[in-house]
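A quick aside before the break. I want you to see a complete sequence-to-structure record at least once, exactly as it would be stored in a machine-readable document. Don't worry about memorizing anything.
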Amino acid sequence: MSNELLSVWHKGEQNIQKRAGTYQRMVDIGPKFIREFMPQQHRDFFSALPMIYIGYTDHLSQTRASMLFGAANFIQSPSETELIINTQHSLGDYILDDIKVGDRVGLLGLEFETKRRNRASAIIIEINQKNIRLKILQSFGNCPKYIQPKTFKHNRDYGEFSTSMAANLSSADKDLITNSDAFFIASHFDDGQQGNNRGADISHRGGSAGFVSINSKGQLLIDDYPGNGFFNTLGNLIENPIASLLFCDWHKGHALHMSVSSKIIWHDDVNHRSHLLTTKKDTGSERIKRSLCFTPIEVERLTNGLAYCRLS
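That is the input. The structure line, written in C-alpha cells, reads:
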C-alpha cells in the first residue's frame, strides 16, 4: 500500500470502506480531496464563522465534543496551514488544562443558513490564556446532505452557566434528543503512529426531527445515512468505541453532552439485524446498510452554554 494512501486513511477507515464497498473509490478520491492545507475559500469560511465545533481529548483522556464562539474573525488564518482560534467563549466547559501543545483536535465549521460545512484535523502548536494556534494536518469539505437550515440570534442568557451530571437520560433529555434534527459526534483514534489521520475528529449528523430514537434500554439508535464514503467517524469508532455526543437546544440556549460507548449494526449481518427503517425524505432510499447504537456512560447538562439561539 502506498505511503500516500496510508497518510490519508487509517486502518479503521479502510476496514469500514472495504465492508461498505467504497474502498476502491476512496483510493482515488482520498489524495485528491483530503489536503494537508486549506484552500483560500476554506480559510475565508472559517474566519467568517461565529462558532466552531471542536473535538478533543481532555485531561482525563476522555473524548469530548464542544463549541467555541465569537464575533467574525475570532478565527484567523495567517497561512494555508494555520488557524488561530480565540478560546475565551465556549459552552462553559472549556478548561485550558484539558488541552496542551502537541494535542490533535478535530474541527467542524458549519454554516446552517447556506448548509455549507468544512472539516479539518490539526495539531496544537501554541496555546495561551486566549488562543490556540493550530497546524492543519487534514482539510476537506463535506456535502450539504441532511443539514436543516437555521438562522440565529444572540442568546441574551449566554454566560450564566450551570452544569449538572447524571448517569442516565432524563425525560427532558430524551425529548431534546428525539426532537433534534442534528447532533455532533467526536471520536478519537491513536495507535501511536504520527500519521496525519490520527487524533480527534468531530462531525455533524443530521436528518428530519426524530431521526434519533431511544430504545427501552436508554440507548440511542441512528441510521447511518449514505454520505461521502470517507467513514472518518465510523473508522474511528471501530477502533475506539468510546465517543462524545453533543445535542444543542437552539430554542433555549442549552446543550446536552454525553460520553457513550458505540456499536455499528450492519443490516446484512443476520446475527445483528436492526429493525430501523428510514423514510425516503432523508435518504432518497429505504435501503439503509448500517445503524449506530450509542449507550450513554455519563450525561452532562450545560445550561446557557450556547452563545446563539434559533430565531422563531
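Two observations worth writing down. The chain has a mean pLDDT of 91. The helical segments are 3-8, 11-20, 23-33, 40-48, 171-178, 232-239, 280-283. We'll return to this after the break.
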